[in-house]
Amino acid sequence: TQSGSTQGELEGIRGAGTWKSERVIASRQGPHLRLAGGGILNFCANNYLGLSSHPEVIRAGVWTLEQFGAGLSSVRFICGTQSIHKDLEEKISRFHQREDAILYASCFDANAGIFEALLTPEDAVLSDELNHASIIDGIRLCKANKYRYRHMDMQDLEAKLQDAQKHRLRLVATDGAFSMDGDIAPLKEICRLAEKYEALVFIDECHATGFLGPNGRGTDELLGVMDKVTIVNSTLGKALGGAAGGYTTGPKPLIDLLRQRSRPYLFSNSLPPAVVGCASKALDLLMESNAIAQSMAAKTQRFRSKMTAAGFTISGQDHPICPVMLGDARLAAVMADDMLSRGIYVIGFSYPVVPKGKARIRVQISAVHSDEDIDRCVEAFTEVGRKHGALP
Ligand code: PLP
């Protein structure tokens, strides 16, 4: 029966050790959380800049809620576009130094809508094998010819670009920063190849917008290729206030086309005013000063260097995603549990989220962690690592 097979599938997920449960938080998002059992230090949110509970962001959300209502009960093109939506789109384009932008309910939607709207069966899309699930799903929905290149492997990308010369248009799609490893796509090299083989470049900046690069514009700013990357998709649900929402920013004709063709835009409700207000304020704060981003970078540096000195291997490149590499899945799970019992909230990742034998605990640093918070986390890791044999 259906319910028998569902039971079987659920048991399979449990048996594989990949069951995901929800921990219930009784407070705002932030470095210090309240759970039912008491307070803990949080090291697993995408709240890189601490703006999810920033007082000015909250005030802006409340003000916008009162002025513009709870929601639009409509998609954008029927009666769901307010001045605040247009203003936020303008602000996003300005932030990224692009011509135009289009909002979505999430970056998942932005990724789900873009490939089908832009690419035809005569075109080709070349995608990094470790791209986010939403890019993979978006590509599945389009009818273009699909190439998957090995993770950040430029030789493989070049070979596939050569093969794809037979198609009308080529689009290279990559995460700017990869969320499991904290590694950064070699965009200089990708853009060079894209020029050579007349391809467009698309980047997903969910784990970069607001804090990578001298002014927090993202991976393209960090690597000096803002004028070479054609399309940027990103989220409002991580560093930019953490509420929800996503967007595409790029050349105006392309954004115009998305407004005509992109299904998650055409067939899904417009972004709620409070969410728009929060994101808009987050962008204001970041455009005023990069002090918040710098503070996060300093804390990331503190964590990475102290953990490395303690004997741990932290993968990735100076990114606030700091994967503590452990190898063994059970070790990662047991250590994460033991960290929680010491009041530090971190999560272990194992297969199939990361390759077999590459289990890890992914720590994420935020601008609102204090130096003491970071040091407490390192101390707990050191104790727990010794106890379980991850450190000598
Ligand atoms: N792309 C990447 C790389 C992500 O990490 C995420 C979020 O997990 C998304 C897209 C989806 O973003 P959103 O939460 O706005 O749907």
TrEMBL record:
Enzyme class: transferase
Superkingdom field: Eukaryota
SUPFAM superfamilies, per the entry: PLP-dependent transferases (SSF53383)
Enzyme Commission number(s) from the entry: 2.3.1.29
Alphabetized UniProt keyword annotations: Acyltransferase, Pyridoxal phosphate, Transferase, Transit peptide
Cofactor(s) listed: pyridoxal 5'-phosphate
Any Gene Ontology CC annotation: mitochondrial matrix
Gene Ontology MF terms in the entry: glycine C-acetyltransferase activity; pyridoxal phosphate binding
GO BP: L-threonine catabolic process
Cross-referenced HAMAP family: 2am3keto_CoA_ligase
PANTHER family for the chain: 2-AMINO-3-KETOBUTYRATE COENZYME A LIGASE, MITOCHONDRIAL (PTHR13693:SF102), CLASS II AMINOTRANSFERASE/8-AMINO-7-OXONONANOATE SYNTHASE (PTHR13693)
Family statement: Belongs to the class-II pyridoxal-phosphate-dependent aminotransferase family.
Protein name: 2-amino-3-ketobutyrate coenzyme A ligase, mitochondrial
Organism per entry: Apteryx owenii
